[in-house]
Amino acid sequence: MASSKSMFRNDLRGVDAYTRHKKLIRDYTLFYNHQIPKNEVKYKTEIEIIRENHKFIRNQDEDEAEDAPWEQRAAKKYYDKLFKEYAIGELKYYKESKIALRWRTEGEVVSGQFVCASTRCDSTHSLESWEVNFRYAEDGEVKNELVKIRLCPSCSDKLNYTTQKRLAKKEKKDKLKRKRDQKREQERDSNKSSRKRSKKSSGSKSAAEDESQSESESESEEDEGERMGKNKESEASNVWKQTAESREERSKEEEFEDYFADLLQ
């Protein structure tokens, strides 16, 4: 009898209360009923309870409430053990803008504080610290939190893939816009130059017309001058002719007067 008791004690030594309870219930049913119950109740383990009640950022007022369930208190106890200075990230689906982040445990802080925080990278060279806006859904609610993470250059590119893609698109749009603006400016300059050329051509035509008009006017003036000169010459010749004729006529009269004067004497 003593040996059976010692065996029973050794069998339950170092076992937690939940496992000991399950063993006692099973042994009880087997000893009295000689059969295993068909529909056993499935109990959740502590890890499952913590996973169900875990939150990335917890509300201290809810956790410290008197009517808080023990599952919530257990998850809060695990949350307090995490180091929330720098996070660890899963960057597998970075092209789809899906990045998972979680806080570090004590062992990860001790062993991996100088290692890339990506779960798929062990690089220790040229690490950079990033502060990102982590947008996640929890309890049917979308939340935002600023989180620090330390990554190597290649993982940093993965983290900033969406931002770089957005900047590349913006730069492409700006480049196309600059090209369109330059094209418009060139078209405006060409239109201005064509207008200037048309103005110059019209100005040269008007100048040529003015020159032709001035030449015609000068020619007409010259013609008029020649005509006036000819008229003057003709008038002068007429004058001289008239004077000669008048002289001839006066001489005859004088002769007649002299003749008659002689007769009367």
UniProtKB/TrEMBL annotation:
Residues 166-265 are annotated as: Disordered. GO terms for molecular function: phosphatase activity. This is Protein FRA10AC1. Residues 209-225, 254-265 have a biased composition (Acidic residues). Pfam families: Fra10Ac1. Residues 166-181, 193-202 have a biased composition (Basic residues). Residues 182-192, 226-235, 244-253 have a biased composition (Basic and acidic residues).
